[in-house]
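**Polypeptide and fold**
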Amino acid sequence: MASEEELFASVDALLEEEPQLPPPAERARLREAAGITQARLAQALKTTTQTVKNYENGRSEPKSPRLEAYQRLLRGWSEKYPAHGVPAPSRPEAPETVVVLPAAVGPEPRSVAPPKAPVTPAVPERTAARRPAPSARRPAKQAPQPVSDARFPHGPLAVLDADGSAYGVDGIVLDCPATSVPELAEWALHESGVGATRLHRNGKDSDPLIVLTAAAAVKLGLPERLEGHEQRRNLRLPDDHPVVQQVKKAKWQLTQRGFGPWARIYRTAQGTRRQCVQLAVLSWDALDERSWPGVAEMEPADIARVLGVYARRVITPRGSTAVSGLELMTALRPPTRAVRDETTGNWVPGRNPGSLGTEPMDPAPPEATQEHPVVVGSGWKGGFLNEEAYQWVRDVDLLSDEECHLPYAVGLDLNTAFLAAAARLTVGLSAPEHFHGPQFNPKIPGSWLVDLSHVELDPRLPSPFTPTGERPDGPAWYQTHTVAYAQELGYNVQPLEAYLRRETGAYLDPWHDRLKTAYLDTLADLGVTRDLDDRAFLAAMERHKEADPVLAAVLGAIKATVKGGIGKLRERPQGRRYRDGERWPALERPTWRPDIRAAVISKARVNMHRKLLNMAKLTGLYPLAVLSDCVVYPSPGPSPLDFLPYAASGKPQPGGFRLGPSPGLAKPEGVQEMLWAVDLMEKGYNPARHIKGGDAVLDEGE
């Protein structure tokens, strides 16, 4: 419930935006007539709250004339500006005011706690979208129900099979009569009822996604596989392909990426309604096995369920999980919002506070890559940030006899370590500025040239300042979190130079909140909940992937979205024809921000070292190896319970590694014999890479 000052401010703002309403003097009279004075407002708000509850529950009780007058005022505004089913952001940017923007750029009408349910817009007619009789095929299981939107009654996406059946979420099966790609685009936009509501009031609705099975692709005239050197190298159809010509002849357009595994077909928007359809071709490897394990081989109904749960909990897929992770950042922090032009009085797009804006921004030279134009063009020779994930193995000579005689090596993996690092992370939003000899401030994000070679740490632990774990040998560039950790350890830091940003903000907060909720909810559906004790947690983790293959695939996609989204912040150039100093396509988007990527990885690596140091203090144990978010410890038993620190009460000791499903907590990664780990270390291999069995992929955020 908003405070009295916020409530009056909201109502006054609404009144000022309506030119036909009475002047302020008349408004004051209306307020006085309503009988709501500052002295009695708190009691009136309490009474209003109870009245609303009674109203919604169908009960009635005597109302005062004063309260009825005030409720009529609020009810009138709620009916004048009905909601459109737009979900509120995870962390409101304004105090307790739910803002619902219309599709067009215009004023932001605010609805202030009306005592009446919002008016639901009428369901648009769908002439070709039908619900046939129950299919003989196995229907998809029920997916979580989001906030409904009458404009998209059939969910965010559909999986089209060759017989014209389009499988949607919640077991819906639609008839799709399209026999060509242009017809499919028309059906998807005007008849399917497929799409999704914007994730932020200033954002855009998600375009309908139609996923094509191999048979459906062939029926529409597409090749089952992309064949030939050119097509495989470019991962798209050639411009003279008949389907591409059909699309152009029907006055549709393709993006610069062409017709590939994730094709976007669009026309110029008519008024405020976008005309864009996303297609995903399963047989062209649209769903990468590493990010969507086993999904491409599922039945269409189950594919629809996997993608539907992901779309509702994360975002409607718009490409790889890395692309979707990056798009989620923009969807939750739109670059623009409607602002009033003081000269004309019109509403125009303006910078949305806390976002990255609409224009790309060049990084500081040490934050860039060696091939970046700001480096090549300036002849920069001053070094670069090296904020990467850990790849460290302890020197075998530093193993004690007691450690070597322990029977087991046990691996621990931190849940979505990059996601945990993104929580409450302050990053720069403006361009970098160069400073000489600055005073270090841990609250200012940026890059600092500091000499940390004097920091003395136990050689049985990796250095927190380098990804290799080796001690620095002189001045180097570090992100703010790395330098702040040196200060936290009690060492003096004196930066020589710095590139800092004046405008800052927690840009990734809504991204973190949404992905964390999606991750925990999906784990809970698989039987791994936060209320489990450590033994029950270990037992649940052993069987969670077998509980439901569909949800297990969603969980894998969520984790890949975190890693890939962070990696996309510093996407490197691709293609053999690229030459150093040329701009590549990723540089033209505002979300090409290597400094934000460095901040996440720096904080994640510092978090890891802090736990390693605390573990040594609590247990006397030192790690054998670390690979990104996985650490291997010698252990007297095969379980993490055999070496993790616990208090006499049985509760985990704070500061060290703790078991649990939340981001930043640990889960078992694997167990092997100690002799196996020592043998790998002697050969120069990293036990953390192989502790699970096979070859683990380095989690670099790439």
About this structure: The mean pLDDT is 83. The two ends are 43 Å apart (CA to CA). The first helix runs from residue 4 to 16. The chain is about 30% helix and 15% strand.
